[in-house]
Structures are given as structure tokens and as C-alpha cells.
Design a protein that fits this description.
The complex is a heterodimer of chains A (about 90) and B (about 575). Helix content of chain A is about 35%, strand content about 25%. Chain A is an alpha+beta fold and about 90 residues long. In chain B, about 50% of the residues lie in helices and about 15% in strands. Chain B contains 24 helices and 16 strands.
């Protein structure tokens, strides 16, 4: 299991589009992805779950990946966050 | 004539006849399904899912054509909602365990999530539930074999009135000749509002019962600026709004004409008007504004969300691209104002968390502790100066020792580069004046630097001891506080006396009401957010420097920000 804390970068937080990009980034991996914010934990492969986290810009998400390709899955997410979700 | 107040969702004014869209309340009944038919019911739900996927493909093609790639991601989100376990797992589960029809199982599942959304305090996130309803409605209409209303059928110039418009409905509006829309429900940050802004359709939402109070054919004025709807307006109101409509058209045109025009006051005092750059993508929009330079290039983005600090090469490339694009105009590159928590994320031993990061290890304080990081950035900035005109700006300076430290390191970087065969031109060095001690000690600091840049956001925060994010004190954050003005005045006159260039960045420069004070103080340059650039140019061009100077002189003797505001109102500012 790997755990990693990432900061939400989109200006409006993890709303529909960034949430969709999050799910797409991990869709191909076998590992489970759990996302925790302030005690609430959801399945990181569920776009509704991510939207229900109401993660505003600057909030910290604790991401746990567990499975055979956990490292790659976390790296894919790190890249997405580093690209700032390709926001204009 | 009836006036209803709502929420301004998308700016603009439209005057026309109303077209009231009938409410599309879908009634879902609970039907018990015999056990042996439950599998068939699940299958029926799955084929509705497939049909909805096809809908979304068609919608995506439409969005791509009308609004481009960024908006098309909204459809991706809808597609993922359709694939979410809520839909793919929970609904079939409910059908099977409760023995009910697919429509009922779906609406129950949606309601369960809706209740979670309702509990959210943040209005922006609460509004995201409409995306879920949008997908849910598509699914329901396939299950019920009802055709979803098609707004493309409305082809006359009308103002659309509805109980609610979903994002997919709003998209349909571009093809119609709808002048604007008003709805009972909705918030300022819903996708419907965001799409209306992108499509440039005036809109007012959250009007509670407008769809019942207006009939098709009624005359309507929709004021998307004030968030108002006027039903059956009198001739005076129509005339007034027609004037407003024409005026705003003329204003937009006037602002457009200010591109490339000098920023000088009516009595001939010129200012350098520059743009702030927060992320490299903004450069295109900034170039189109034709600024006199980039007055603040924030480099923090390079250090966010990564596991190792950016290399010298990566930084050189990033800075050079911007410097080259702006050449021969200058670019002020500010070294990263990052905090200690960021460091541990970058894999460097730092501080995990500070109780008060605004007063903690950040900006130059952090870099002087991690000289390797600092030197890497300075070297990259120096190297980018080979591509054009570059100045370097140091954030969070509070004492003279820090300036000595920076200068030593900068000289070291220059001589190292020279030893490697890279001769860089002299790069001007400036400090941010954002801590009151720096403003007060400026006479002693100035001989060591080439220019100063006043960061109003932090200067106000530190002078008034107000954390803006803290809701209990945020009302005390006041750019018009006389103490702030006195510090600004002290800093500007100290720099004047020593012939040093004074720039101001921060939100005050983008506030049309605060700019007269900055003009009156006699700064050399304003660095403005790109969004407000032309508007601020217009403000400066409408001012008399002499009048603004007198205003500042009076304001400096005021004991209260209210007095300063009153003074400005008296002057019509």
C-alpha cells in the first residue's frame, strides 16, 4: 500500500471535470484507490464519491493505492496534479 | 410592471417576449415486479444506460463544436457518472432486492445521493448535483420512452423562462435564438450558469417562482448584471434598459480600443501598466493586452504538486519562453514564495506543518536556509536574461541581512555562470515591500536594490494583523485603512528620494476604486491581473494626477477608512 498527500490545484476545487479526470487517470489500474479528506473516505474510482468530498482548492487529499500497480497509479495521479488538471 | 430579484448568473441585458417552458416534472411510480421478471427489468435498465451513452456522444460532438475541448470534459464527467457504481451497481441491486421497477430504483438511488449533496455547506459543490440530475433525467426519459424536451425547437427571439435548466438544456440554447433565460432554481456557480457565461447568454437564476408568474408572450426585461427580471415593463423602463444596453456595448468597444494605448492621466502623467502572470498558459492572453511588461511573474506553480524540486534546466526553459515572448519589454520574475510544508512534499527535509505559516518559514526566509534551491532558481533566472529583459524580485524581505544574503548568492551565481562560459547581462534586483518592517526601513534597504514592488495583499494583512481566510476577522481586511496608506506613502517617498523605481502589485491595483490612491501616491508602475487590465487603464486615463495627489494628501490625515471612502465619493471616484 502507498499513501500520498496531494493538494487540490484547480481554482474551483475538485468539481465535475477535475473529478472526471481523476477517475480517468486511475481507471486502467487494478489497484484500489481510496481518497480521504478530513475523515471522510471514498472510492477514488467513483466520480460521485469525489464530487461528494467537496474538495476545494488548496485542500489536502490523502490518497491510498493498494494493489499490484499501486506505484504506477499514484504516479499517474501525481502527474495529473502537477499538470494542474490542464486548467486554462 | 413587476420586478423580481434573483441571482445574476450571466451578465448582459435582454429585452423581449417571454417563452415559458413547461415544467418537465417526471412522475415516477413504484411498481412491484414479479420475481421471475426482475432480470428482464435489470436488462431494460442496462439498455437505457446504453442509449444514454449514445446521447452523451452526440452531446459531446455538439460541445466540441460550440465551446471547445475544455467544456467537453463536462460530458466526460457525465459519462463517468453514468458509469459510476451508483448507477451500474446500486440501481440493479435495488431492482433485485426490493423487487421494484427500474425507474423507481433509479430515482431512489438519485435521491439518496441528493440528500448528501443537500448537506453540503459549500454552495458551489452543492450545485454539482445538477450534473447528476442531468444524467438521471436522460436515463429516466429512456426508461419511460419519453423524448426529452428539445430546446432547438424554439426558434424565435425570446427570453426563456423555466423552472430549471440543466446543463444539457443550456447547451441546446446556442442553436436557438434565445436572448437570455430566467429560472426558478439554480445558483451562480452551477454548470448552467457557467455555460451561459461561456455562451454569452444573459441569465438570472434562483427567482423562486418566476416560471409561474410569467406567461408566454409577456414582455420581459432580463438584467443579468443586477440579477433582475422585470415583467411587463413600462415604456420608461424599456427606454432606460435600451440605453443601458447601448452603453454597455459602447463600453466594451471603448475598452477594446485601449489596447496598445498609453496609460497616462488627463493631465499627462504616464504610468507603466504591466500584467501579473501566475501560470505560463496566460501569456497568450497577456500578449493580446499589449502591456508594458510583466510586473510580477509568480513562479510558485513550478514547485506545486511534485516530488522533487524543478531542475535548473526546467526553470530556465519556463522563464526563457515568457521572457522571449515579452521581449523587449521587461519581465519581473519573483523567486518562489513557498512555505516549509511544501519542502517536505518536494522530498527535502523541511517543516511538516506550522501553526502560523503566514508568519513562518516562507519566501526568502526559506530560500536562505536552502541555498541550493535558491541558487538553482537564481541561475535559471539569470540564464533566461539572455533571451530578453529580466529583473529578479525577492519576496518576504523583513531585514537588511536578508538583502545582503541574496546579493552574495546572486553574485556567486553570476560568477559561476561566467566560469562556465555563460556571460549574463546585469539583472536588476528588487525586493517585495509586503512586511511593515521593510516599508519602515526602506531608506536603509534602498541603496542595496534597484527597485521595489509593493505587495498590497500581504502588506495589508501584516499591517492590520488580519488573516483574510478567517471569516471572523475578514471584514477587518481593509485596503483603505489609513495605516496602510501611510505605509504606502512612506515607501513611495523613500524610493522617490533615492530615485528608485516603485511598482505595485497585489489586488489593490486591480480595484478600480483603489487605483486613484495609487495614482495619487505617484508610483511608477502598476502590475494588474490580466482580467482587469483594460478596465484599470481606462480608470487611469480618466483621472487627473493633480486631483489624485490632493486626494492622497487629505486621505493621509484621515483617521478612518470611511473618511477616505467619503473623500473619494465626493470627488466622484
Amino acid at each position: 500500500m502507498i499513501e500520498k498527500t496531494l493538494t487540490v490545484t484547480p481554482k474551483l476545487g475538485l468539481h465535475a471535470r477535475p473529478a472526471a479526470m481523476f477517475v480517468q487517470a486511475t481507471a486502467g489500474f487494478k489497484s484500489s484507490i481510496m481518497v480521504k479528506k478530513e475523515g471522510v473516505e471514498i472510492n477514488g474510482k467513483s466520480v460521485m464519491g469525489l464530487m461528494l468530498l467537496a474538495a476545494e482548492c488548496g485542500s489536502k487529499l490523502v490518497i491510498r493505492a493498494n494493489g499490484p500497480d499501486e506505484r504506477q497509479a499514484i504516479e499517474a495521479l501525481e502527474k495529473l496534479f502537477a499538470r494542474r488538471f490542464d486548467e486554462d | 410592471m413587476i420586478v423580481i430579484k434573483g441571482i445574476a448568473a450571466s451578465p448582459g441585458i435582454s429585452i423581449g417576449k417571454a417563452y415559458v417552458l413547461e415544467d418537465e416534472e417526471i412522475v415516477v411510480n413504484r411498481v412491484e415486479i414479479p420475481r421471475d421478471l426482475l432480470r428482464a427489468e435489470v436488462k431494460r435498465f442496462k439498455s437505457a444506460q446504453k442509449a444514454t451513452h449514445r446521447d452523451l456522444d452526440a452531446a459531446e460532438a455538439k460541445v466540441l463544436k460550440l465551446l471547445g475541448k475544455q467544456h467537453a470534459k463536462l460530458i466526460d464527467a457525465h459519462r463517468l457518472i453514468l458509469r459510476d457504481t451508483l448507477i451500474t451497481h446500486d440501481v440493479p441491486q435495488r431492482i433485485l432486492t426490493e423487487g421494484v421497477n427500474a425507474e423507481f430504483a433509479l430515482s431512489e438511488a438519485l435521491e439518496a445521493v441528493n440528500q448528501q449533496f443537500e448537506k453540503m455547506e459549500d454552495e458551489f459543490f452543492r450545485e454539482r448535483r445538477h450534473d447528476l440530475f442531468d444524467v438521471g433525467k436522460r436515463l429516466l426519459s429512456h426508461l419511460l420512452k419519453q423524448t426529452k424536451r428539445n430546446l432547438a425547437d424554439i426558434d424565435h427571439h425570446c427570453i426563456l423562462i423555466a423552472r430549471n435548466l440543466l446543463p444539457s438544456d443550456t447547451l441546446g440554447l446556442k442553436e436557438t435564438r434565445v436572448l437570455g433565460f430566467a429560472t426558478d432554481l439554480g445558483g451562480k456557480t452551477s454548470h448552467t450558469a457557467i455555460l451561459a457565461q461561456s455562451l454569452e447568454i444573459p441569465a438570472v437564476v434562483g427567482l423562486s417562482d418566476v416560471s409561474r408568474r410569467i406567461k408566454t408572450g409577456d414582455s420581459v426585461i432580463l438584467d443579468g448584471d443586477q440579477g433582475m427580471v422585470i415583467i411587463n415593463p413600462g415604456p420608461e423602463a424599456v427606454a432606460k434598459y435600451q440605453r443601458v444596453q447601448q452603453k454597455s456595448l459602447a463600453e466594451d468597444k471603448a475598452l477594446e480600443q485601449l489596447r496598445g494605448v498609453a496609460t497616462s492621466t488627463l493631465d499627462g502623467k504616464s504610468f507603466s501598466l504591466e500584467a501579473n502572470l501566475d501560470a505560463p498558459e496566460e501569456i497568450k492572453a497577456i500578449l493580446a493586452l499589449q502591456p508594458d511588461g510583466i510586473g510580477l511573474f509568480r513562479t510558485e506553480y513550478l514547485f506545486l504538486n511534485r516530488t522533487a524540486p524543478p531542475s535548473e534546466e526546467e526553470q530556465t526553459k519556463a522563464y526563457s519562453a515568457i521572457v522571449k515572448a515579452m521581449e523587449p519589454r521587461s519581465v519581473v520574475i519573483r523567486t518562489a514564495d513557498i512555505g516549509g510544508d511544501r519542502l517536505s512534499q518536494l522530498g527535502i527535509e523541511g517543516i511538516k506543518s506550522e501553526t502560523n505559516p503566514f508568519m513562518g518559514l516562507r519566501g526568502v526566509r526559506l530560500f536562505l536556509r536552502h541555498l541550493d534551491l535558491f541558487k538553482t532558481q537564481l541561475r535559471a533566472i539569470l540564464r533566461s536574461s539572455l533571451k530578453g529583459s529580466v529583473k529578479v524580485l525577492i519576496p518576504m524581505v523583513s531585514s537588511i541581512g536578508e538583502i545582503h544574503g541574496v546579493k552574495r548568492l546572486l553574485a556567486q551565481a553570476v560568477s559561476e555562470l561566467a566560469a562556465e562560459g555563460v556571460e549574463v547581462p546585469k539583472v536588476e534586483l528588487g525586493i517585495m515591500v509586503e512586511i511593515p518592517s521593510a516599508a519602515l526601513m526602506l531608506e536603509s534597504f534602498l541603496p542595496l536594490v534597484d527597485f521595489i514592488s509593493i505587495g498590497t495583499n500581504d502588506l495589508i494583512q501584516y499591517t492590520l494583523a488580519v488573516d483574510r481566510i478567517n471569516e471572523h476577522v475578514t471584514h477587518l481586511y481593509d485596503p483603505f485603512h489609513p495605516a496602510v496608506l501611510r505605509l504606502l506613502s512612506h515607501a513611495v517617498s523613500a524610493a522617490r528620494k533615492q530615485g528608485k523605481w516603485v511598482s505595485v502589485c497585489g489586488e489593490m491595483t486591480s480595484d478600480p476604486h483603489a487605483v486613484p490612491l495609487l495614482v495619487g501616491l505617484g508610483v511608477d508602475s502598476l502590475s494588474v491581473s490580466p482580467r482587469m487590465f483594460l478596465r484599470i487603464k481606462q480608470v487611469v486615463r480618466g483621472l487627473k494626477h493633480g486631483v489624485a495627489e490632493k486626494l492622497v494628501a487629505k486621505a493621509l490625515t484621515s483617521s478612518d477608512s470611511e473618511d477616505i471612502r467619503r473623500l473619494m465619493t465626493e470627488q466622484g471616484l
